[in-house]
Write a structure and sequence with these properties.
This protein is mainly alpha-helical. The protein contains five helices and no strands. It folds into two domains: about 35 residues, no CATH class; about 70 residues, no CATH class. α1 crosses α2 and α4 runs parallel beside α5. The longest helix is centred in the middle third of the chain and has 19 residues. InterPro entries: Rho-like_N, Rho_N_sf. It comes from Stutzerimonas tarimensis. Pfam families: Rho_N.
């Protein structure tokens, strides 16, 4: 029998393990071995117990949008033969990678009202 508590796994992970285990048992693998293989497969595919999510899921929608916009600008510069590192550095830095102080300074330059009380994601949204 596999070691460890399975309560940290999501319902989807548990269903997947059950399905894999049944598949192994149909092929003649002993029940305890089938269960061990099933959980090993689930662990390999999803990294173990309950997870927060995949890549980029902790970013806000506005941060993702700002990153895409920044990436598009750099790609356009590259197509035109310009180096993305030349020229105005403010267009090259993703808003999401900037500190709150840097974002507040940018907001100050654009005279955005209420900037001093905004959180980072609010500043990014106001600037984009």
């Amino acid at each position: 029998m596999p070691r460890g508590d399975k309560s940290k796994y999501t319902d989807k992970q548990q269903r997947k393990a059950e399905h894999i285990e049944e598949s192994y048992e149909k092929r003649g693998v002993p029940a305890d071995e089938a269960e061990a293989r099933a959980w090993a497969t689930v662990n390999k595919q999803s990294g173990g117990g309950e997870r927060k999510g995949g890549s980029g899921q902790d970013k806000s929608a506005t941060a993702k949008r700002a990153d895409r916009k920044d990436s598009a600008h750099r790609a356009a510069q590259a197509r035109q033969g310009e180096s993305p590192n030349r020229g105005n550095s403010s267009g090259n830095t993703s808003l999401a990678k900037m500190t709150v102080r840097e974002l507040q300074e940018k907001a100050r330059e654009r005279d955005i009202p209420g900037r001093s009380k905004m959180r980072k994601d609010e500043l990014i949204e106001a600037l984009s």
